[in-house]
Amino acid sequence: MGTNKKLIIAVAAIIIIVLASVGAYLYNQGLNLPENTPSPSPSPTPISITLTDDTGYSLTLNEYPERIVSLAPGNTQMLFAVNAGDKVVGVTDYCNYPYNFSAWVEAGNMTSIGSYFNPAIEPIVALNPDLILASLGSSDQAAQLRNLGLSVLTLNPGNLTGVMRDILTVGKATGHETEATTVVSIMQQRIDAVANALSSTTTKPKVYIEIGTNPYYSVGKGTFIDDLVKLAGGQNIFENSTTAYPQVSSEAIIEQDPDIIVFPSSMGTENLNPAEVAERDGWSTVSAVTNNRIHTINGDMINQPGPRQVDALEILAKIIHPEIFGTYTEP
Fold first, then answer.
1. pTM of the model
2. In the 8-state DSSP scheme, what is residue 129?
3. Mean of the pLDDT values across residues 179-208?
């Protein structure tokens, strides 16, 4: 073999060796990671969010919750509305929307902590929650749970504006602020639509809301039901009551002569019909009775301070002003 051929072969061998070495170097530097080299797990994004609840209590969260317990139906509705429902591990026996949670509990996919009013502490703690949404019915428990080192926000909105504010709070607390903003924006649009439609009316029919029978109970000023009646273009006949849910007499109702009577279902009044109301002593002359303006509305919808209250507003608007919003069809 000639000298030139030997030189060419030698140079070629050196080039092959160099290329192989460079390839191995690049491989080991991570440009081509071996299959058995694990990728690093992403670290949780640290946050620092301070939220103030409806009692004035401030809570700082350093990470978004993964296990949430809701102590009120309205709170549960807010969580699911902002798309944080997959983090909910506990609800009350009264939580029934947007899903049939009792079926979830029976299937082992959810835990019930029991009553809305003064729930037991032990079932809540046992769920190891990193966020608890309490309510007016669990205000004492909220303090006890905080003393145990648990994160608690108490939501107690008094009207639709408060409901929307709390939805935004829930969105911030769970990392779903964008979804919460969208929910509130849509709710506000629907509220504005009712207000705009009522802007030209000059009448405010008198409305009696009966939430209890024998004895009679109604709603007073400052309650979210009173707020809904006003937003729907009506006048609550007991708006000047000194208590939120006053016990009222038959004589007082007759004297006020309401144009409309509304019975929220699930409060013991859903089985009443206009004929039975007319048979009440002295009620046959009440305007709502003589004009057959007695209606039933979903009690949970109107009585639970959650996103569905805007649905209740639209229904009440139909009941109070059918000439503007159309006829309301009974459930």
1. 0.84
2. -
3. 97
